[in-house]
Amino acid sequence: MYCTVGVPLVCWPIVAEQVTNCRQLCKVWGNGMELVKDVSRDKVAELVKEMMDGESGKERRRIALEWKKKAEEATSPGGSLSLSLDKLIEHVLLKSE
Question: CB 62: neighbour CB atoms within 10 A?
């Protein structure tokens, strides 16, 4: 997912899980901005400009970089994901014997 590469997202949820993903990115994690209904070219341009140049965008870029760092730590050797995956593999292999 793009939130792990240090880039904030402009979200435009339309169907299915996009609404939930947008809410998570924008409201919970804080590294996204949502386009509301009745989207126009001007509204998109305004939101992109805010994301790139505005204070709100600056904060979201900072948060996005924090998520990138967390993802790198978790996936590095000895990180939480690595350890959890090792435990899962060990559990599955021991169960099959």
Answer: 13
7 Cα distance to chain centroid: 8
| Domain architecture of the chain: domains with CATH | 2-96 (3.40.50.2000)
Q: C-alpha distances in angstroms, 49 versus 8, 56, 58, 90?
A: 13, 10, 11, 49
| DSSP bridge pairs for 32 | 9
Residues 6+ apart with CB under 8 A from 43: 35, 36
Specify whether the backbone of 78 is left (phi greater than 0), alpha (psi in -120 to 50) or beta: left
Q: Answer positive or negative: Cα dihedral of 54, 58, 59, 60.
A: positive
pLDDT band at 1 (very low <50, low <70, confident <90, very high): low
pTM of the model: 0.76
